[in-house]
Design goal:
This protein is of the alpha+beta class. Helices cover 28% and strands 25% of the residues.
Amino acid sequence: MAYYRPPGPPPDPALVRSLTEQQHEMRQRVRAELLPREPHLIAGCDSSFPTPDTILSVFVVLKFPSLELVEKVYSYGPVDMPYVPGFLSFREAPNVIHAFAKLENKPDVIMVDGHGIAHPRRMGIAAHLGVLLDMPIFGVAKNKLTGIFQEPGIERGNIEPLLDAKSGELIGEVIRSKDKVLPLFVSPGHRCDQATATRLTLACLKGYKLPEPTRLADYWAEQFKKEVR
């Protein structure tokens, strides 16, 4: 996800309390589980903010394991939710769901450019969307949001656990997706477990830092931005 972080006054405390309560309620619904079967279609999802008040959300659907592009859609619209650190999923989710509704080929699993449970309240965008869509979803992020880890080896395929700093709970895995590049942070969202999230991420690498579902979602986001300008 490409985030816009506008300057401004601190968020309304009442809004923060309400969003926190909603996240805690949604967290109770998150499930870590195996996929019912090997996926035939895998989607990639990415959102960005072309302006402070608009959002562009993209889905691509690929065949798995060939990673052939099947479909691409986007939704572009206004953002009503103010920027509140730690609650970006509330800004993104409504438009992402609009984009998802446009898909003619419904995926078996979704890879989101963002975090799953590797979030201070275990409710990153992948977990948030997973609960709303009731779909198997996991997150692949370029930057750490929370947790501690040892740097993985410099060669592609090296993996280290991402742990909660206080409890030691496993909240994700840190993956070197390409030799000598910064690692990715992979965590399950909903109806997906860590092993599956990591396995599918590795299976979707084709020589780039990003796995194909989110790499192509990011690529098509740039193309679709030209249409909405």
